[in-house]
């Protein structure tokens, strides 16, 4: 791992980490990304582990989506992780793609960044100056942008167990596609919040504790807080409406979980 | 340039390739195994699906150098001793293909799927092929082929 961090630091702004490659390689194939150097971490030992820790589960940078999805350790710590992973692309992509890679890719339409943001998890980064934990709230800074510094390698992500029930629902044009809208919800005895996909530059976390279990009211709060954009799949208004409907559904499901 | 060694369909194969070589291009151009088809080249169509250590992956979204030392099964490796595999026979029997371009990806995907789930329900069979696009068949006969392959495998044993 030391060698990977060294190579990444030496590559500087020209360097990019290659793990599962299920986001990076399509970008390269379409010539949308052309990194000068790739640091392939696929053969780095010790990065594939999924470990139970106090208050949650830690997922290593090389743990494939399919492995995390199947992991009883991860499921026992936070069942939302498995449920959300089943919505990530198709099995053939999940066999190769990594959960930490998807988080670092920081696509606001992706499920795992939203799950990390909802649960208040963190990303552990290792760079030339050592290791640091970056809370999810500070990690996502824009579409496909994170607060990882040049030369830093994300070595793991921590998903907190979080008190309460969880759920995730989404609507996609086709099975396995990126969702037009989606909502992950967490409902505990004295808190309720949601994280919304595809309605902002980063996963949008909205605290709806004040709705006090009136999930229709919570949906109105969510609709006011989000700023969706239009694209070829949906208008901004439709996305706003849909996100409200999904928020109500996800909150209900999480409250009953 | 990198020396890449893969066990392809049980045979060790080696080539010197640039780091940028996709597994799909490695198989087709460096090893001459043109059964693996390249459709969309960004992971959507599933035509290039091969089995990596037994699990389906997109060969177009994998660099050959990343998987050196691992085992790859392509569509060429499904038939045994000149006899088509149960999945291949089922696709032929049920007309699960027309032009055949997408077929290698379906065959590898379904082969791995039936190993994990030898008697799938209809919705499971549909979901199993949801990551592969076919522009000819309308999928009905492909789903039939999945069920027929499961039957053939159950009759013939492992």
From TrEMBL, chain B:
PROSITE patterns the record matches: 2FE2S_FER_1, 2FE2S_FER_2
InterPro entries, per database record: 2Fe-2S-bd (IPR002888), 2Fe-2S-bd_dom_sf (IPR036884), 2Fe-2S_ferredoxin-like_sf (IPR036010), 2Fe-2S_ferredoxin-type (IPR001041), 2Fe2S_fd_BS (IPR006058), Beta-grasp_dom_sf (IPR012675), Diverse_Oxidoreductases (IPR051452)
Keyword DNA repair: no
TM region(s), chain numbering: none
Molecular function GO labels: 2 iron, 2 sulfur cluster binding; metal ion binding; oxidoreductase activity
CDD domains, A to Z: fer2
UniProt pathway: Alkaloid degradation; nicotine degradation
One Pfam family named in its UniProt record: Fer2
The entry's keywords: 2Fe-2S, Iron, Iron-sulfur, Metal-binding, Oxidoreductase
Domain 2Fe-2S ferredoxin-type: 2-78
Protein name as it appears in the record: (2Fe-2S)-binding protein
């Amino acid at each position: 791992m030391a060698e990977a961090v060294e190579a990444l630091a030496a590559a500087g702004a020209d360097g990019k980490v290659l793990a599962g490659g299920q986001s990076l390689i399509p970008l390269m194939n379409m010539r949308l990304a052309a990194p000068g150097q790739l640091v392939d971490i696929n053969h780095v030992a010790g990065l594939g582990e999924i470990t139970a820790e106090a208050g949650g589960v830690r997922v290593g940078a090389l743990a494939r989506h399919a492995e995390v999805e199947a992991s009883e350790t991860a499921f026992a710590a936070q069942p939302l992780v498995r449920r959300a992973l089943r919505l990530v692309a198709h099995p053939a992509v999940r066999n190769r793609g990594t959960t930490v890679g998807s988080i670092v890719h920081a696509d606001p339409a992706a499920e795992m960044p939203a799950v990390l943001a909802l649960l208040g998890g963190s990303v552990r980064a290792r760079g030339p100056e050592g290791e640091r934990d970056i809370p999810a709230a500070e990690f996502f800074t824009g579409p496909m942008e994170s607060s990882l510094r040049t030369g830093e390698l994300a070595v793991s992500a921590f998903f907190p167990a979080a008190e309460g029930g969880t759920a995730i629902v989404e609507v996609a044009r086709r099975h396995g596609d990126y969702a037009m809208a989606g909502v992950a919800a967490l409902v505990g005895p004295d808190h309720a919040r949601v994280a919304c996909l595809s309605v902002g530059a980063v996963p949008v976390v909205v605290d709806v504790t004040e709705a006090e279990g009136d999930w229709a009211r919570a949906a109105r709060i969510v609709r006011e807080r989000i700023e969706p954009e239009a694209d070829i799949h949906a208008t901004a208004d439709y996305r706003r409406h849909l996100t409200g409907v999904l928020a109500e559904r996800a909150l209900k499901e999480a409250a009953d979980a | 340039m990198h020396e890449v060694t893969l066990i392809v369909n049980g045979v060790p194969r080696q080539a010197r390739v640039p780091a940028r070589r996709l597994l799909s291009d490695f198989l087709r151009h460096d090893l001459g195994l043109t059964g693996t088809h390249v459709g969309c080249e960004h992971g959507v169509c599933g035509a290039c699906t091969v089995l990596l250590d037994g699990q389906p992956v997109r060969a177009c979204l994998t660099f050959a150098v990343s998987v050196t030392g691992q085992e790859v099964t392509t569509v060429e490796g499904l038939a045994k001793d000149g006899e088509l595999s149960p999945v291949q026979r089922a696709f032929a029997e049920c007309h699960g293909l027309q032009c055949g371009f997408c077929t290698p990806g379906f065959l590898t995907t379904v082969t791995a799927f039936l190993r994990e789930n030898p008697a799938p329900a209809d919705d499971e069979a549909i979901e199993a092929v949801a990551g592969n696009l076919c522009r000819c068949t309308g999928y009905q006969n492909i789903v039939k082929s999945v069920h027929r392959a499961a039957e053939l495998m159950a009759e013939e044993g492992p």
